Amino acid sequence: MEPVAAPAHGISRRDLVGVTLAAGAGTRLAPLSGLLPKALCPVGNRALVDLALDRLEQVTPNMAVNAHHFADEVLRHIDQEWAGAVTVSTEPGEALGTAGALARLRPWIDGRATVVVNADSWSPTSLAPLVDGWDGRSIRVMVNGDGGFGPRARIVASTLPWSVTKNLVEQPTGLYEVVWREAFARGELEVITHKGLFIDCGTPLDYLEANLAAATIHGSAILGAGTVIEDGVDISGSVIGAGARINGDVVNSVVWPNQSVARGERLIRSIRAGTSVTVGPL
């Protein structure tokens, strides 16, 4: 297939790769992250890592994921859902951070420019504004909101030219410390403002809000395949996973796959993630 250039985009899809960072332990997301790797927690009934890859796939077919916490589960998931279309880079021992992870992927990146997203954040918006007009030679960050770039900026995605990636070191380091901060100080960091929805699913409350936003966009409750909903129960604003059995009200809440809500129960702004794990109301 011939490479296709995105509109007003100076670099071909063939010369661009996308990396989803999915190695975080998700400590703040406990107890949910004790059941699943953070990147596999579902928003709108789709794993966060898959949603991140969906967005990358809009700008490049060449995609990779890094994994550390529950790496075997992430690897199995990617193999099952993406059938060899996504490279997985596992990090034994200590997690390498955002910069070290890209250094480990350097043989795969192999001279190409890179778009980077985090699997632990949710956004329904396109990455096109980040790559439109990009020639693959500059460093860009897409920042949510009007606050501009800084240590607390909400980074939606970023780009790295090969000239930067090739010099990264495979050790625990972050892109802010070794790339973005210095580029910003030199006036060489291009900041793209992102005005759309963006939620860092770092805590159970943030994770719930992402799901409720997905349900709002959907226009009604989101139901997975094979859900069983008792007549007359209220499931408004909720996301209910495949195979769940709902016999009580579930309002503005999340029920993970194959979980149940008993008759007489009423979940409000809560997350039912396991037989003994319910978080909320939040």
UniProtKB/TrEMBL annotation:
This is Unannotated protein. Residues 18-132 form the Nucleotidyl transferase domain. Gene3D superfamilies: Spore Coat Polysaccharide Biosynthesis Protein SpsA, Chain A (3.90.550.10). SUPFAM superfamilies: Nucleotide-diphospho-sugar transferases. Coiled coil: none annotated. PROSITE patterns: TAT. It comes from freshwater metagenome.
